Amino acid sequence: MDKYFLYIRKSTDEDDKQVLSLEAQKIELEEFALKEGLDIVESFSESQTAKCPGRPVFNAMLDRLESGEASGVIAWHPDRLARNSVDGGKVIFLVDSCVIRNLKFPTFWFDTTPQGKFMLNIAFGQSKYYVDNLSENVKRGLRQKLRRGEMPGVASLGYLNDLRTHTIVPDVERFALVKKIFVLYGTGNYSLQDLRKFSISVGLFSRGGKIPSVSTIQKILENPFYYGVFKYNGELHEGCHKKMIAKKLFAKCQEVMHDRSRPQKRRDIPHVFRGLLKCGECGCSITSEKQKGHIYYRCTKKKGVCSEKYVREEKMALDISSILQKASLEPDWADFMISELKKDKAISDQSGSTFLQNLKSEVLALNARMEKLLDAHLDCVIERDEYVAKKQKILNEKIEIQEKIKDFGEKGNHWLERAISFVEEAKQAKITAIAENLSSRRDFLKKIGSNLTLSKQKLGFELKNEWKLLYFRGEVAPTARMRGEFSVNVSEKRFTMLGDRD
User: Fold this and answer.
1) Cα gap 46→169, rounded to integer Å
2) Backbone angles phi, psi at 496, to 5 degrees
3) Which of 73, 306, 399, 479 could form a disulfide with 282 if both were Cys (CB 3.0 to 4.6 A apart)?
């Protein structure tokens, strides 16, 4: 007598549309087995969808069938065994190989004849079609909900899912309390922990009666649903539900949260020149300390004895200011230079455009010559050796021109743009030198110089090349005569500042 495994399954995503519950299936199948005289050796129960392979209980049952513990299976319908091609194919293969000699269903006829297996295959195919079609219907329904502005899923705290209309409506008990959380946090006077205590004090709990955690409060404050939009699959959609707060209040809460997440700035007076210099005598770093209301800079003396003395920050600031003024241009002089440079840039742009167009035309002409040369060779007008030699000459010429085009694209008249930028920085140096912002002075000093040292209470540095001419001319005030001698040489791609003392 054949032995049977009884298999019952209930899909977790079909709670409201189950044909029979697990208990009902088992009772019906046991009565069916008794009526048919079938010997059930073990029952297998599973609560998992069959639309994808990988059910552990089902797979364990098939393994035991292959080991010979039973030769048949009893189930309510073939769709309880499989709704996907992998599991369905596995069952049919075991039937073909006589591992499964019989399948019994109260609602479906089956025998091991070719016709029976054909009908079983159709039943599995219909089961898969049902799942696939159901998935498409669900997706279509979700898309329609999104078009109507209805958020799929469980409503956020402060709202409820209306099962009658399938919409989201305000929760009378919690709506105003959740809104109060946004109002309090927007003031900037309450932390997330404070809001959690507030929630407990006013009885604002989840629908399951749980006390909201700090992370839950944070998620509420970050949820755009409350100002009328919602995220689905990473995309924002406009909702049709009643707004709880204005977008302005939501933005204010995000600003407060962002500010609170940033590291707190130190409130002590910054030592702006600390770490800027090295000791000119021993090479150690220059550190700083505050004494009697003033900041002093000194050598760390980590390498031993050093005679370098302390320097007050005020003196160092004046020294840096003096350096910057030497490397600066008066605003009217700088504006004149920028104006002249821009004129030459306009001329250069125009001539450069013509130059580039001429190069491209030459390339087109060389391409045409190569085509004619090839035609002549194919028509046997010229021999191959002559063709190869002439082609090589034209090709080399073409490559040279293409390199010129590339060089012009990379360089062009960028030197004029850099000159304009340099003059603008030199103009800014004057402003920075007399401003009270010591950090700006420090940053500008690092821009124009390197290898900064402190030696005998004086600053030492190496000027960067582009600042040398300007710095050593910095003691001379620009005059009208100097302006007249200012020139830009487009062909040589350089500009000079000439002039003598009056």
Assistant:
1) 36
2) -130, 155
3) 306
Helix or strand or coil: residue 303? coil
Residue 364, Cβ neighbours under 10 Å: how many? 9
Residue 379: the pLDDT is 81
Spatial distance between the Cα atoms of 249 and 180, rounded to a whole number of angstroms: 11
- Tell me the pTM: 0.38
207: left (phi over 0), alpha (psi -120 to 50) or beta: alpha
Measured CA to CA in angstroms, residue 218 lies from 18, 193, 434 at distances of: 39, 10, 47
State how beta strands 3-9 and 39-46 pair. Answer: parallel
The residue written with tokens 């909702």 in the block is 239
CA 53 from chain centre, in angstroms, equals: 35
Which stretches within 379-459 are classed as H helix? 384-410, 414-434, 438-448
**In this structure, are strands 72-74 and 102-104 parallel, antiparallel, or unpaired?**
parallel
Distance CA 120, CA 131 (A): 17
Contacts of 104 (CB under 8 A, 6+ apart): 4, 32, 33, 36, 38, 72, 73, 74, 75, 110
Calculate what percentage of the chain has a pLDDT beyond 90.
Answer: 16
Sheet containing 72-74: give its strands across: 39-46, 3-9, 72-74, 102-104
451 touches 462 (CB < 8 A):
yes
CB-CB contact of 175 with 159 (8 Å): yes
Residue 61 CA, distance from chain mean position: 47
| CA dist., res. 18 & res. 458, Å (int) | 89
- Report d(CA 48, CA 28) in Å as an integer: 20
Burial call 189-224: b when 16+ CB within 10 Å, e when fewer: ebebeebbebbeeeebbeeeeeebeeebbbebbebe
Q: Are 74 and 32 in contact (CB under 8 A)?
A: yes
Which one, of 29, 232, 258, lies nearest residue 144 by Cα?
Answer: 232
Instruction: Give first-to-last CA distance, the chain, whole Å.
Output: 125
Distance CA 500, CA 475 (A): 11
What is the C-alpha separation between 497 and 399, in angstroms, rounded? 39
Mean pLDDT, all residues of the chain: 79
pLDDT at 381: 83
